[in-house]
User: Fold these one by one.
Assistant:
Number 1:
Amino acid sequence: MITPFDVLLAVYGLGVAYHLPRSRDRLVLLTNCNPTELCGGCRDERRRVMHEGMEWEAMFGDFAGPFMVLLDALAWYVKPLLPALQRSMGREPRAKCSKGECLAWTSRKAAA
Ligand SMILES: [Zn+2]
């Protein structure tokens, strides 16, 4: 007997599985690349990721990296809603990648 909840869980699980390698690649790229090759939006994102990474590292040590990737992938369903959520809380939505020459964008295109 398949309930709607089972379907939802399966969709969610597939989403996490789909996003895990992408989240990992994005975080690895952001933290390891030269920030001058990123656009303004991605540089902000990099700063945020590095800052959060330091906080996670204080709590989880060596597990901080995989843990951040997991958290990022687990939150995949929120991401399309984030800009609207932030606006509704009266906050500026995070800057988006301006694409073009940005390394985060060109390497994603290369991977696709
Ligand atoms: Zn960018």
Note: The chain has a mean pLDDT of 92.
Number 2:
Amino acid sequence: MADRRSSGGGDLDRQLASYRNEFPILRDKLYLNSCSLGAIPSRGLTALDDFGADWASEGTIAWEKWMKKADLLRGRLASLLGVSPRTLCLMPNVSAALAALSSALDFSQRTEVVSSDLEFPTVLYQWATRPGIHVRRAESVDGLEVPASAYHDLMGPDTALVALSHVLYGTGAIQDVDSITKMAHGVGARVLLDTYHSAGIIPVDLEGLGVDFAVGGVLKWLCGGPGCAFLYIREDLLEELSPRGVGWFAHADQFAFDPDFTPAADARKFSFGTPAIAPIYTGLAALEIFEEVGVKAVRAKSVGLVDRLVRGARDLGLEIFAPEESDRRGGTVFIGVDDPAGVLARLVEARVVVDVRGGKVRVSPHFYNSTAEIDRFLEMLR
Ligand SMILES: Cc1ncc(COP(=O)(O)O)c(C=O)c1O
């Protein structure tokens, strides 16, 4: 495959524009909801057909191919996240990944998890529903961001884990993971990063960030569809962690059907049972595109689109709920409008896909959107 990585500027726009044809939904809709569900590329549709064809023609023999594809996906995710494939375990969703992780952590000495009011609920419920764990939530002052100092104020000798998102789902703000991680490590706590709203829209380097654990999935910005998520465990922690209640895919030699459990030597030891295969096919197809384009180019395009959206909405006298500086914004912007339900109904009628959350219109363009689409959208907010 030719390397279509771009060098930036107008060149970047032109090269990314060629990918618009890969996303069938763009022919019919103004699709600005990638933070919820990334658009499926035509390669993903072909991959779904291939999955059906392999199943139809090979039956159980297809499992060999399916397992190889699962490994390939692990490898692609690992390179996207800047880690070794050994440190990743595929999971059906983030909640399952968190359950597997929490089963392996020891809360007998340190009993607190520090998180924040702006975290996605599943990240909070995981700890709040476990007896003996006390969740402390750092507060946001402006409802947009949680200052690193607010996390820091809650950390102490009882902190076992700091659980935070790279990009906040409800505001699109990029968190200061680097300093929060350093602070957490300074008090002897571990760090769990939710990358659901960063992987695929901003560059993610888990090793560089130094976090201990991470979760995320291919559903949203990675355009791979529902049913495939991942758990990352820092390489040097793999040996000491023993997850409880795992499944047969976690065994060192799963097809030995050994009644005694010997854990896999890598992060697969966190696995449960038979995975869904279709999202592995679609995930692989989508990640191929991200490898070709490069997440840096995706980010450059996204910053341009989001800046234009913010400026344009402000010119219309609308209120923007997002950090002021573009380098602190992820891919999602919230726009205040007078009659959110009415505006949404109008947009749906005009075949625009966005969402309304908390009385604000949530807009999340991706690299496959164009500046012309942003302008058309802004016209409709007049
Ligand atoms: C930040 C974040 N974490 C996790 C999830 C989802 O978790 P799960 O895969 O368990 O549905 C979402 C969203 O849907 C999310 O926005």
Note: The two ends are 43 Å apart (CA to CA).
